[in-house]
Each structure stands twice: as C-alpha cells, then as structure tokens.
C-alpha cells in the first residue's frame, strides 16, 4: 500500500472516529446555529492570459459560431453548408454554454440571464432546423461518399440530444414557454451511451445521470455512474471527474452522507494519479473539497437541532477545518468542464479559436 493511500485511510478513519455516535445522549442544550458561510469560489481562468474577461472570451466563441453559420448560408456547396452549420451549433453548445453548465455543477449562480440563455437555445434550434433541411437536400446529391450521409446525420442527432439535454439541465423554457421534460431529454441522451466516441459517451453519461436524478430520484442517477474511485480515462478526464463528484453528491442526497464524505477524501488522494499537471490537480482537489462542503451543509440542515446538536456541531467544525485548509480568503478557483459538449463536428482549420489554459483542446481519439 502506497504512503498516500495509507494517508487517505488514516484521514477517513479519523473522520469516522471524530463523528459522534447518534446513540449518545446530548448532555448540553442545543448550540446556536454556527454553520460557516460557504467560501468565495470562481471557475478556473479560461484564456491563455491571466485575468481574461470571461464574457469577452465567450463572446468571441459566439462570434465564431455566427461567422460559421453565415458562411454556411452563403456556401454554394450543399455538403459544406451542412458541415459548417454543424460546427457552428457545436461551438455554441460546447463553448458558449460551458460557463453556466460548470457553475451549476457546483450549485453556483449561472451569472447568465434566463432571457439570454433562452435566446441562445432558440438560435441553436433554428440552426439545427436549417441543418436538417440542408442535409435532406445534400443527401440527394450523386457522387457523395457512401458514409457521408449516415455519419453526418449521426452528428446532427448527437448535437440535438445534447441541445435538449442542456436545455433541460439549465431549466431554460422554450420560446412558447414550455419546459423541456428531463425524462425525455435523458432518454435521448441514453442513445449516445454506446457511441464509439468516448468523449461523447462520457459527456452523455454525466448529463444523463443528472437528468435521471431530477425530482429527488438520486438512485436513478447513481445507477448509471461508475464507482467514485474507478480510474479516470485520460481522454475523458473532466467529464469523468465531474461524474465521480456527482456520484458522491447523489449518495449524500440518498442519505449516505458519511459514505459520500469518505469517498471524497479518497477522490482527493486519487487526484495525484488522475491529474498529471500540478495546476490542474489543485483545481480538482479544490472541487472535491467544495463538494464536501456542500454535503456537510446539506447534512447539517437535515439534522434536527433538538435531537442532534453534537452531530450538527461536528458538521460545522468539519466545514471550518476544510475552509481553513483549502480555501483562500478572497476567491478560490475550481476545475471547470472546459467544454459542455465534446467536439462532434470539427471546426475548419481556417478558424482561429481563442486560447485556453492547461491545454488547447481535449486529446484526440487514438
């Protein structure tokens, strides 16, 4: 057993020993509410330069999508129209919608007005409708490669599934005011779970599990997720990592708070194996620690003050310890998805994409 895993087990054992027995009678009257405030956090920087303005960064992606769509409409080649429009849809779903999706994974304010999100989804829907029309026309052309139409149709269906899934996840109403049904969105995403593209599978699994768990159905989400300590495949690192955090959060939602906290302590240790880059590893450990705080906060709220004063005090003490050890006084950065949806329709090489931190793009399939 390696020293770091021994350290992990010591931490867990200490945590369990420090947890007071529910069977013990409280000798003191209930203590006042002393739960600490959640620390200030922010998503990791997006651009290559420190202090990049996130709004400007994503406005650049919106502009890229707009230019791609304009090129599609002006193209004389039927196949090129479809391919450019698919790339535009992919950019909007992957990049423009990533910040609100990442923030919501941490229970944070999305910082995007509902009207703005609704407008973007309406734009994506119109672009998808155009693509469907153009694809129907292009598929009738003679001399097309045999696999072009089925492969292009598969890309379109995948992007439609993610569009529906993210709309349901962010709870953005359609133009007619109707809300996307999470069950229908989850069902459409489930069709992507057998994709040959592992990034598509990993992203679909994450959003599928979240939507399945809506309405207090934590176990339905847990059923489709890997175990929290299963090795993370490098190609799907971020989607898979957030899926591990999600499993712990759902276990807590199902009443297994102590199990979830113990697993998250081990997830922190496993980050040394999963993340090769120290700066990325720190962000991931911060994310796991913040997940512990959210679970402790929820546990504290569920415990009746009159019945479990010592248990509530333990939760508060544990939160204070984590905040003191891991979080800064100003604002602590957390790992972000980087892409809400993987690259399904490639952007033309002539298009310059904004720079990123840590790595420019997710690794390609071997």
Describe what you observe in this structure.
The protein is an all-alpha fold and 366 residues long. The chain has one domain (31-44, 51-334): Serine Threonine Protein Phosphatase 5, Tetratricopeptide repeat (Alpha Horseshoe), CATH 1.25.40. It has helices at 3-18, 54-74, 78-96, 98-105, 114-138, 148-170, 182-190, 198-212, 218-222, 237-253, 257-274, 278-302, 309-326; strands at 41-43, 332-334. The chain has a two-stranded parallel sheet with strand order 1-2. Helix 1 runs antiparallel to helix 11 (257-274) and helix 5 runs antiparallel to helix 6. The longest helix is centred in the middle third of the chain and has 25 residues, at 114-138. Mean pLDDT is 86; it is low at 1-14, 16-31 and 357-366.
Summarize the structure.
The chain contains 13 helices and 2 strands; from the N terminus they run αβααααααααααααβ. By secondary structure, it is mainly α.
Task: Give keywords.
366 residues, two-stranded parallel sheet, mainly alpha, Serine Threonine Protein Phosphatase 5, Tetratricopeptide repeat, 2% strand, 2 strands, disordered N terminus, 13 helices
Residue share in β-strands: under 5%
Helix content: 55-70%
Let me know the number of strands.
2
CATH fold topology:
Serine Threonine Protein Phosphatase 5, Tetratricopeptide repeat
Silhouette: elongated
Category from helices, strands and their pairing? mainly alpha
Number of domains: 1
